[in-house]
Amino acid sequence: MIGTAAAATRDFEFDLVATIARKELRDALRARWFWLYSLGFAVLAALLAMVALPQDIAGSSGFGRTAASLVALVQLVLPLIGLTLGAQSIAGQAERGTLRFLMSHPVTRSEAFVGTYLGLVAALVAMCGVGFGTAGVVAAVRNAGIDAAAFSRIALLSWVLAAAMLGVGMLISTMARRSGAALGSAVFAWLALVFFGELGIMGTAVATQMPVNVLFFSAVFNPVEAFRLASLSALSGSLDVLGPAGTYAVDTYGESLEWLLIGVLLAWVIAPAAVAWLRFVKGRDL
Amino acid sequence: MIHIDALTKRYGALAVVDDFSMQVDAGESVALWGPNGAGKTTVVRCILGLLSYEGSIEVDGLDARKHGKAVRRRMGYVPQELSFYDDLSVLETLDFSAALRKLPTQRVDEVIELVDLGGHRDKLVRELSGGLKQRLGLASALLPDPPVLLLDEPTSNLDAAARESAVELLHDLREGGRILVVTSHHLEEVGMLVDRVVAMEAGRITVECPPNELAERLGLRAWLHVVLDDAPIADAVDALCSGGFDARANSYGVLVEVSAQGKGRALEVLRHAGIGVADLEVWR
């Protein structure tokens, strides 16, 4: 064992974390992937905003369609970006030897981990900002009657989802020996969360005549679903999209439903990142 | 100041460093010498806290396992594999390194001048040659002006001229009570840089002695290829064999086996026999 978690946190210095985070963010802003993802996200968001906003239905319903389309885009694209970015972080640096260079400085493993995590979160936040900003500008130009509060809440939830997926990716990264294996695992995790999760639950619900409360909790345990439901709830105040399970959730939890969904998302932010941190602090030789 | 006791590093059942103990006092320079795979780099990485290990390492009275950050604050490290961030420039790399050590940016300019990287400060790391990367590694290690320098094969990527100036620089760095721990498999380099050599093989210490005694203690041999100055090759072979050397003709010269420290005696034998030497080369 390299050291204890207590030893690793004893000398924690925030200015060193900020130094590492700034470097990570600067690296991201210079990297091709960042601009490709940002551009792709912005173009798709703009296209969705235009397609969802024919001139004759401009106004609040037009905005709802744009926002719902954005939610669908985010739940598909953002987990993939967050997971792959996280998966490449520790394993990639270890493979290139740059992690050894970093750790030869007077820096604890906790500082290195938290700095890397925060830097990458900042990069994802910037990337989402470009996408949402573009969609917002298009919606405004086309007179969509933007509900700024709902739009901001969805953007905030996107950032939380990005942080959660990054944490899962970094957990994968601490478990993998090679960055290629980490990347493969991240793509599999993305498929599991985005496709198998929803389709699997729907299939199981039909086959087993799953009770509505079990169906609801099976859905919200998935962070991507929790994001989708929290966003749609913020947008329309209902969960009709979930059918009887949605009606059950609204009837049972009422006003606190949104907080339950946000709580699930925050748990996904904290738990994987915390486990990844523990593994990194106690873990591998460099 | 560095105290290593019973250091053992295992990968599964294989002990790559086995029961290694060493003490290095302030102002002393020590070489870990041995072939590839002897365990030299592993010892250095354990001191830095990059690897888990059994046994104990103390630097300046601090347990390296419990106080890794404080230990690393006292050290500069030049790794064998120079893995910097490819997309950063020389200046940005050193700025980042200085920021992690909380040093003023003025210090970056000083070390850039010290290792003669002034003309390359805006180049990206990926554009640097092996020799320039080695200088960047040295610059990064020297930033904090540390009391301990760990140099893992510090001249391995340098050509002959660059190696000479690097050895000169490292020689100067011994001044002022600084500890130098150098890993190397170059005998001559070790002789110029350190007070003591710890020879390793298969993770264990085999010999510990001053550098001028190492070749004799380890029984190291070398081949001297001598090109003669107009004398018959057979005469030279006879003279050397009579002088107790194992010598043989080799196309346009003589090959003679010598101890690593005894090359001069073979030349002396030839001179006494009246045989002139036009050129020579050492083969190991």
Q: Which helices and strands occur, and which strands form pairs?
A:
The complex is a heterodimer of chains A (286) and B (284).
Chain A: H1 5-10, H2 14-30, H3 32-51, H4 60-96, H5 98-103, H6 109-141, H7 148-175, H8 179-208, H9 212-220, H10 223-236, H11 244-253, H12 257-282
Helix pairs in contact in A: 2-6, 3-4, 3-6, 4-6, 4-7, 4-8, 4-10, 6-7, 6-12, 7-8, 7-10, 7-12, 9-11, 10-12
Chain B: E1 2-11, E2 14-24, E3 29-33, H1 40-48, E4 54-59, E5 62-63, H2 68-73, E6 75-78, H3 90-100, H4 105-114, H5 130-142, E7 148-152, H6 160-173, E8 179-184, H7 187-193, E9 196-201, E10 204-209, H8 211-218, E11 221-228, H9 233-242, E12 246-250, E13 253-259, H10 263-272, E14 277-283
Helix pairs in contact in B: 3-4, 4-5
What would a concise description of this structure say?
The complex is a heterodimer of chains A (286) and B (284). By secondary structure, chain A is mainly α.
Explain what this protein looks like in three dimensions.
With 286 residues, chain A is mostly helical. Chain A has helices at residues 5-10, 14-30, 32-51, 60-96, 98-103, 109-141, 148-175, 179-208, 212-220, 223-236, 244-253, 257-282. The longest helix of chain A has 37 residues, at 60-96. In chain A, helix 9 crosses helix 11 (244-253). With 284 residues, chain B is of the alpha/beta class. Chain B folds into 2 domains: 2-218, 3-Layer(aba) Sandwich (Rossmann fold); 221-283, 2-Layer Sandwich (Alpha-Beta Plaits). Chain B has 10 helices and 14 strands. Chain B has helices at 40-48, 68-73, 90-100, 105-114, 130-142, 160-173, 187-193, 211-218, 233-242, 263-272, and strands at 2-11, 14-24, 29-33, 54-59, 62-63, 75-78, 148-152, 179-184, 196-201, 204-209, 221-228, 246-250, 253-259, 277-283. Chain B starts with a strand and ends with a strand.
Q: Shape of chain B, please? A: globular
Overall pLDDT level of chain A: 83
Radius of gyration of chain A: 20 Å
Number of distinct beta strands of chain A: 0
Proportion of residues in extended strands of chain B: 25-35%
Question: Over all CA atoms, what is the radius of gyration of chain B?
Answer: 22 Å
Please state the structural category of chain A: mainly alpha
Q: How many beta strands in the DSSP annotation of chain B?
A: 14
Q: Please state the structural category of chain B.
A: alpha/beta
Q: Which strand order do you get reading across the main beta sheet of chain B?
A: 6-7-8-3-9-10
Q: What's the CATH H-level superfamily name of the largest domain in chain B?
A: P-loop containing nucleotide triphosphate hydrolases
